Amino acid sequence: MLDNGSVSMSLKKIPIFFTFDNNYVEPAAVAFYSLLDKAKENVFYEMYVLHSDIMEEKQKFLTDIVHKKGNANLTFVNTNGFLDEFWNNGSFNFKSSNSTFTVDTIVRCFGSKFFPQYEKIIYSDVDVIFTDDISALYEIDMSEKYLAGVKNPFSKYSRHELSHLKPEHYEILKDKYIAGGIWVMNLKKIRDDNLEEKMVEVINDKTIIKRWNDQDIVNIACGGKIGFIPLNYISYPYLIDLLQNPKFTSDYTREELYNSIINPKIIHFAASKPWNSDPKYSNLWWTYFYYLGLGKTKIFKEMPSKEKIKYKKYKKLFLSSLVVVVALICIIIFG
């Protein structure tokens, strides 16, 4: 039998960080718990949250959830207004999608500033559910790559995805553009090559439109020095519907696309959130939510129950039938 010292030595410690504001504490709780619940026994996460406004009681709430699992530490790092001036002055296109962006969205690009103690770190969004262990991500070979992420599976199908890029950027990134959700960051190379300065230049350049704020910044700054991780590390709930469209095309093979749905490691609610719509896998998200005893906040949209949806459906059907019946009666009576 191994003693406690041997057990601790066998642990694989993995740093991972998140960036969100006070409004996203409840979704973060779901993400944190699912991450730790699916972790292998020999994996221990050093978790960090970069933030600007998370209240102390909310921090304690998340810390308690993490510590109860026993396989992670959680540290909050206040960014103290870092990037506020760039956020207010930068050329960000906020009206291009249904997504909600805050300054915390772009702080995640600057992990090398906040984590000088690490040469490599994982970043993750919190509008996710982890459905499998992700520790293998930390072992991927970054070599000369600044970041590794999931290649955008929609850029070949939808011109809207990358149409905002300058021609010179598009040529480099058209088949290399990585999505958000999950990144592995080579902090050592980012520091060695002063990549953060390049990212600030991209932010300050008003001729560069940042439609997908954090994604555009890192993709343009990295200049194609990007690695790729499998698509099932970002399983998009709506991808199954797109796959029914014969016109849908992607840089991924049909097998890779379906595998991301059949064998997901992370479900990413990138467009539609479980708390304000009803995407696929919502039931799983709500199961975690209620298990943790979480409460709804102002970001939660009150949605009609399935019973109400059925009622509206049958009411509409009844009214349509009633119109037809009345019309037939009128024809019979009045000829």
Please, could you describe this protein's structure?
With 335 residues, this protein is α/β, with parallel strands linked by helices. The protein has two domains: 4-302, Spore Coat Polysaccharide Biosynthesis Protein SpsA, Chain A, CATH 3.90.550; 304-335. 40% of the residues lie in helices and 16% in strands. The strands form two sheets. Strands 3-2-1-4-7-6-8 form a seven-stranded mixed sheet, with helices on both faces. A two-stranded antiparallel sheet has the order 5-9. Helix 2 (25-37) packs parallel to helix 3 (56-69) and helix 9 packs across helix 10. It is globular and about 85 Å long. It starts with a helix and ends with a helix. The relative contact order is 0.13. Mean pLDDT is 86; it is low at 1-8 and 304-319.
Rg estimate, integer Å = 23 Å
Can you summarize the main beta sheet? 7 strands, mixed
Summing up helix and strand content along with how strands pair, one would put the structural category as alpha/beta
Count of alpha and pi helical runs = 14
Mean pLDDT: 86
CATH class of the largest domain: Alpha Beta
Q: How do the SSEs run, as a string of H and E?
A: HEHEHEHHHEEEHEHHHEHHEHH
CATH topology of the largest domain: Spore Coat Polysaccharide Biosynthesis Protein SpsA, Chain A
Number of strands: 9
In which range does the helix fraction lie? Answer: 40-55%
Low-confidence stretches are 1-8, 304-319
**Within the largest sheet, what's the order of strands?**
3-2-1-4-7-6-8
- Report the principal-axis shape: globular
Could you give the distance between the termini? 93 Å
What's the domain count? Answer: 2
* Proper CATH architecture of the largest domain: Alpha-Beta Complex
> What fraction of the residues are assigned to beta strands by DSSP?
15-25%
Corresponding CATH superfamily of the largest domain: Spore Coat Polysaccharide Biosynthesis Protein SpsA, Chain A
